[in-house]
Amino acid sequence: MAKKHPVRTENLRRALAQEAARVMAEHGVRDFLFAKRKAAERFGVTDNAVLPKNVEIEAALAEYQRLFRGESHEESLYAQRQVALEAMKRLKAFEPRLVGPVLTGTATEHSEVQIHLFADYPESVAISLMDQGIPHEVTERRVKMNAERVLAYPGLSFEIDSQQIEATVFPTDAIRQAPVSPVDGKPMRRANVEDVEQLLKS
After folding, report:
1. Which residues lie closer than 8 Å to 162 by C-beta, 6 or more apart?
2. Which end of the chain is less enclosed by CB atoms within 10 A, N or C?
3. Are residues 81 and 26 located together in one domain of the fold?
């Protein structure tokens, strides 16, 4: 039985990563698996072993934005980070941490700002938003803590300056253990107010 040509397989894998990245960038898709499936469908690929890893798609997404969005991507990302900082300052009592694509720099113009908050009583976050006159929806977020454990946490969805913000409320002691990243399975990178201020200056 002939082995698959390694160069051909590698080229196909790269093409699938680029197509998945395009789907995410142009259609506001967040789900890596969905983007992979759309890419595989377009290329007629049925062998899951050829599909790229999430980290490969994220790299292709960063490259896509650099090549095709350039300055507009930088402006959009800067605006999203400014809104993130505003939201974090408004909710500073809850030790806010910015996470996700707005932090890593791969956000598209469709991306929401993702924030982790920490409170013993999740309703205290909702009360804070109400006190500030910020309309919001209470939601629930399923968060992967490790390879075996997925937990549900309360969340809040609201807008500042027409930018969608998705906040997940963890118990106060959860600040020491970050959930795993959907990209590489490692502990999720989190940034506090000072970190985001530095990002905006860089």
Report:
1. none
2. N
3. no
Q: Measure the CA–CA gap between 196 and 173, rounded to whole angstroms.
A: 22
Element (H, E) at 199: helix 193-201
Q: Which residues, other chains included, contact 48 with Cβ-Cβ below 8 Å and sequence gap of 6+?
A: none
Rounded Cα gap, residues 68 and 79, in angstroms:
19
The reply to whether 26 falls in a domain is yes
Instruction: Give the domain CATH number at 160.
Output: 3.30.460.10
Q: pLDDT tens across 138-197, in order?
A: 999 999 998 889 999 999 999 999 999 999 999 999 999 999 998 888 999 999 999 999
Q: pTM for this structure? A: 0.85
Number of domains in the chain: 2
- Domain annotation covers residue 64: no
C-alpha 102/C-alpha 105 separation (Å) is 5
Identify whether 65 is part of a domain. no
Structural domain of 25: 6-52
Per the document, the length of the chain is 202
